[in-house]
From TrEMBL:
Zn(2+) binds at C70, C73, C86, C89. This is Hydrogenase maturation factor HypA. One of its GO terms (biological process) is protein maturation. Keywords: Metal-binding, Nickel, Zinc. The lineage of its organism: Bacteria, Bacillati, Actinomycetota, Actinomycetes, Streptosporangiales. It comes from Nonomuraea longispora. Belongs to the HypA/HybF family. Pfam families: HypA. Involved in the maturation of [NiFe] hydrogenases. Required for nickel insertion into the metal center of the hydrogenase. The keyword Metal-binding applies. It comes from the Bacteria. The gene is hypA. Ni(2+) binds at H2. GO terms for molecular function: nickel cation binding; zinc ion binding.
Length: 121
């Protein structure tokens, strides 16, 4: 479950931005090439955030597509399937571009400071 490593880094970044404030939500944009599974990402974030300022935060995950260019017929389309084939001719000889980003788009903080015993390292 590669989502755990991804979420550990995100939680570290979020906690640095939080500077002790309680985090209520975060929005993360992940490219389709990362093959992130929404449920697994949510569980990994919950584990990574346990005991910190983002412990009860709601995470919105946005999967961005990649561009699929078929070498056989020239068709260009978008897909969120990392094992994409050409939707027009079915050929698997495709070039994939984009869809490899991992961006923390926003963080929302609560009114009161968080009461945490763990400090970001």
């Amino acid at each position: 479950m590669h989502e755990i490593g991804m979420c550990e880094g995100l939680v570290e970044l979020i906690e640095r931005r939080a500077a002790g404030r309680r985090v209520t939500s975060a929005r993360v944009r992940v490219g389709a090439r990362h093959a992130v599974v929404d449920d697994a990402f949510g569980q990994a974030f919950t584990l990574a955030a346990a005991g910190g300022t983002a412990q009860d935060a709601v995470v919105e995950l946005i999967i961005t597509p990649m561009t699929v260019g078929c070498r056989a017929c020239g068709c260009r389309t978008e897909s969120v399937d990392p094992l994409a084939a050409c939707p027009l001719c079915g050929d698997e000889g495709v070039d994939l571009t984009g869809g490899d980003e991992l961006v923390l788009e926003s963080v929302t903080f609560g009114e009161e400071a968080a009461d945490v015993s763990r400090h970001p390292g």
